[in-house]
Amino acid sequence: MNKKEINLILQEGEGQFIEFKENLDKKFAKEIVAFANASGGRIFLGVNDEGEVNGIKITNELKSRITDIAKNCDPFIHVSLKESDSILIIEVQEGFNKPYQCSDGFYMRIGPNSQKLSRDQILELSIKEGKIRFDEQICKDFVFEDFDDSKFEYYLKLAKISYTLDRKNILRNLKILKDNEMTNAGVLFFAKNPSKYISTSKIRCVLFRGNKRADILDRKEVDKGIIGNIEFAVNFLNEHIPVRFEIKGIKRFEFPEYPEEAYREAIVNAIVHRDYFENGEVAVEKLKSKVIVNNPGGLIHSLPRKDFGKASRPRNRLLADLLSKTVFMEKVGTGIKRIKDYCMKNNNKVDFNFDEHNFFVEMIPLETVEETRVKTGEKSWVETTQKTVEKTVEKTVEKILEAIKENPYITQKELEKVTELGRRGIEWNIKKLKEQGVIKRIGPDKGGYWEVLI
Q1: Which domain does 79 fall in, by range?
Q2: Using CA atoms, how far apart are residues 57 and 60, in angstroms rounded to an integer?
Q3: Which residues pair with 2 in a beta bridge?
C-alpha cells in the first residue's frame, strides 16, 4: 500500500473495513475479533478518530504484543503487519472458523463500529457457520411410539446392514441415538410423521401448465421421511417429464427431456443440504420447459462462492453420512459435478443460483421432445394408432388409458389414486384426451362409462 492510497483512506475515514486507533489499548482485541467475524478489515495504529496521523513508535515489542493478542483470541486469529512511516497497519482476514471471541466477548464489525453480539446473534452466527448442526441436535419431544419400524427396516435393506443387533444399538452405531434420545436426523429418517416434530421436513412437488407459476395442474406436499420424500419427488418428475421413443427393430429406446440421474441428484442434494432452521419446504417444480429444485438456506456461510462446486462443506453431516450408505448418494461432495455431467450428456442446460436464503437448480432442455418430433417428422401419439399410444409423451396418459381399459366405469377419484395426480391434473388430462378424440364419455357423469377410441 503506497502513501497515496493511505492518504485516501485517511480522508475517507473509518468504515466497515477501516478502524483508526491512536495506540494499543485494551479495546484492541475486540477490533480484531469484530473484523474476523465480519468480512475482514484493517486497523491503522497511530491514527486518531479524525484520521489525523499522530504516529506511533514501531518496535518488535509492539509487533509481538499485537501478535499475542491475536493468538489469545478464541480461536486464534492470524494477522499481518505492515509499516508506513509512523503508522502500523494490522490486516485482519475474514475468519473461516467463526465465531471468534476475546476476553470481553463476541464482536462483529457493523459499519464503522465493532458491536458486541447478543446471545441470539452468537447462536445465529454459529448456525450460519455450521458450528451448530440441526441434524445432530437432540429432538427432546420425540417419543418412540412414533418410530416407524417399516422405514427403519427399509433403510437397513438399502444400506445393506444386517439386523443382528437390537434396534437401539444399531441407532447408536449410526450416531442417530445419543444417550437414548433421538437426534433430528433420526426423526427425519424414521419418524412416522416427521413434521409432527420438525415442521420443515416436508417436500412440495408442483406441475405447472406453462412457464409461469400461475396455472397449477398438480400439487403434492408429502411428509414421508428423507428416503420417502426423495422417492416420491423423483417419481413425480418421472410421471410428468416428456419422453421420446424410437423403435429400432425389436428394441425401444427412450430419450427423456431431462435425465433422471440429474434431477434425482438435485433432489437428494436439496433434502440433505437444506437449512432446516429456515422456514419452508424443499420445492420440486415442473414447468413447461424447465425443471426447478429449490431448497431453503442457500450456501453454507463458511463456503466461499468461488469454491462452489469445488469444495464440499456439508451443512448436515449426519444426514449426508446416513444417505451415503444407500444407493441415493454417491461420494459426498460430487453432486454438483454429476448434475452438470448428466445434463451435458443429455443436451440440457443447467444453472445454479443462490442467495442467503435459497439455492436453486434449474434445468432447461436445449431442444424439447416436441421440437425433436417436428425436425424428424415423427408423429405424436394423438395422430396415430394404439402402437403410437405406447410412445406417449407423458407416462401419465398411458396410466389413464390403461386404467380406463381395465375399468371403463372408473371414477375420477380412482384415477387420482392410480396416477397420483390431483383433481385438476386429472381434469386437464381427461379434457385433453377428449378434445383429441382419444376417449369418449358414454352416458351421464354418474352411471356412464369411458370408451377408448384408438
Answers
A1: 3-128
A2: 10
A3: none
Interaxial angle between packed helices 260-273 and 335-345, expressed in degrees from 0 to 180 and rounded to the nearest 10:
160
Contact present, 74 and 101 (Cβ < 8 Å): yes
Give the burial class of 24: count Cβ atoms within 10 A of its Cβ; 0-12 exposed, 13-18 middle, 19 or more buried: middle
**Residue 211 near residue 285 (C-beta atoms within 8 A):** no
299 and 208 in a single domain? The answer is: yes
Contacting residues for 206 by C-beta, under 8 A, at least 6 apart: 213, 216, 218, 219, 220, 283, 284, 285, 286
**322 and 374, same domain (yes or no):** yes
Q: Which helix (H) or strand (E) holds 246?
A: strand 243-248
Map residue 166 onto helix, strand or coil: coil
125-180: per-residue pLDDT in tens? Answer: 887 776 778 899 999 999 999 999 999 999 999 999 988 888 999 999 999 999 89
pLDDT above 50 (res 250): yes
Radius of gyration for the chain, computed over Cα atoms and rounded to the nearest angstrom: 30
Amino acid identity, residue 117? L
Buried b (16+ CB within 10 A) or exposed e, 29-51: bbbbbbbbbbeebbbbbbbeeeb
Residue with cell 443436451: 347
Domain shared by 361 and 391, yes or no: no
Are residues 164 and 116 part of one domain?
Answer: no
Looking at 107, 128, 149, the residue that finishes a domain is 128
Last residue of a domain, one of 357, 378, 399: 378
Report yes or no on whether pTM surpasses 0.70: no
